[in-house]
Amino acid sequence: MQTLCYASQARARIKGAYELPYFIEPNPMNLEFTKERIEFFIGMPGSGAAVHTDGVCEAIFSVQLSGVKRWRLSPLPPYTRAVQARAPDMQSGAWDPSFVFDLHPGEAVFFPPSLMHETKTVGDECSLSASLQIRYPFPVGHIRDFKTRLIHSQEVSFCFEHWAPFITGHKDGVREMYRQIIKGQDPNNVVQSFFNQIDTNRDGLASMPEKIRHFKWVIKQHRGQVEFTAAEEAKDWFAFNDVNKDGKVTFEEYKELQLDIQTTYATAIEQGACDEMGCHPNVKRDILAGKLNGIESAYIANHESGHDDEVELDEEYDPNKTVGHDEV
Questions:
Q1: Which sign, positive or negative, has the C-alpha torsion 276, 281, 282, 287?
Q2: Is the dihedral of CA 5, 9, 14, 16 positive or negative?
Q3: Total-model pTM
Q4: Does residue 151 sit in helix, strand or coil?
């Protein structure tokens, strides 16, 4: 009990002394994630962790405080079907990582979720490092480019519902699209209806003000019980869906990407892929039943970044209605 007391006091002191690093975007979500989810790792000379993938959905930023730690990292294997077991641990030398480097005191590594990594303390000193989870900006390009293997993986496939806002533009959007399509609705019509809620002037293009306003509406509909803020998530949504990087998101661009994701997602579910509650034969049943997302941190929307005030949400705003250009 005394140990727990000291641990609680130490945690309170660390949180009280914490300041957001200057290079991390200063918004409430980043402060929440980095301050509340900081972890410390200490290792004796020669110790380390076998290759693994962390079961977290955010990017990792690891800072070396003392000693030297060797890192070996690689993307997940190119899974093409849902797997029922995690990628096996491999000892050093048994796999060929994409990146190998040593971190010295004051140095850090930033990597997206799902990367396999192995660590080892090198030299004669103990290693001490701190790891933070960063929310914004999100490495959405990594998720888009590696989506097939990530959906099929046991390690992070459950994250796709957590990532749904920047993928689809809707809370629970990946699962809801799947639910509507699997029940017999035309996939093109389903995707069109999702896009129309964003593109309220129906010009075939989604603008940043439209997306921010839509996210504000989503947050309001869920009484703030979401894990994103409107302005920051809108930026990530644009980065994810603007595949050709021309600064705009067209319906055709959105449709092609979403239908590709849904095809892979449906196949993975049929094969027994994971959702946030784990891997089991009842995944499809639970999704169709509308099971709640179990990994939300219930972020309260009234702590949103001040950037969201750039686009106001009218009381009469309804994304299901068409509005004129001057109303967006």
A1: positive
A2: positive
A3: 0.81
A4: helix
- Are 68 and 121 spatial neighbours (Cβ–Cβ below 8 Å)? yes
Q: Which of 240, 24, 57 is nearest to 141 (CA)?
A: 240
The answer to whether residues 67 and 139 touch, using CB atoms and an 8 Å cutoff, is no
DSSP 263-289: HHHHHHHHTT--BTTBS-TTHHHHHHT
Q: What tokens appear for 13 in the block?
A: 């002191």
pLDDT tens sequence across 15-44 = 777 777 788 888 888 877 777 778 889 999
Q: Is the peptide bond before 78 cis (omega within 30 degrees of 0)?
A: no
State the DSSP H helix or E strand holding residue 232, giving kind and residue range, or none if neither: helix 230-241
d(CA 170, CA 158): 16
- CA of 102: how far to CAs of 53, 123, 191, 196, 289, in Å? 19, 11, 46, 49, 48
Q: What is the DSSP string of 6-59?
A: HHHHHHHHHHHH----TTS---HHHHHHHHHS-EEEEE-TT-EEEEE--S-SSE
Decide if 225 contacts 239 (C-beta within 8 A).
no
Q: Is residue 239 a contact partner of residue 208, using CB atoms and an 8 Å limit? A: no
CA dist., res. 208 & res. 279, Å (int): 37
The answer to whether 125 touches 66, Cβ cutoff 8 Å, is yes
Match 């300041």 to its residue by tokens: 19
Question: Are 157 and 273 in contact, with CB atoms under 8 Å apart?
Answer: yes
Nearest C-alpha neighbor of 50 from the set 86, 93, 92: 92
Task: Name the stretches of the chain with pLDDT < 50.
Answer: 1-4, 91-92, 290-309, 325-328
Q: What is the pLDDT of residue 278?
A: 55
The DSSP line for 110-146 is EE-TT-EEEEEEESSS-EEEEEEEE-SS--HHHHHHT
- The strand pairing partners of 74, in sequence order, are 116
CA–chain centroid gap for 26, Å, is 18
| Residues 6+ away with beta carbon under 8 Å from 61 | 24, 34, 108, 109, 110, 131, 132, 133, 134
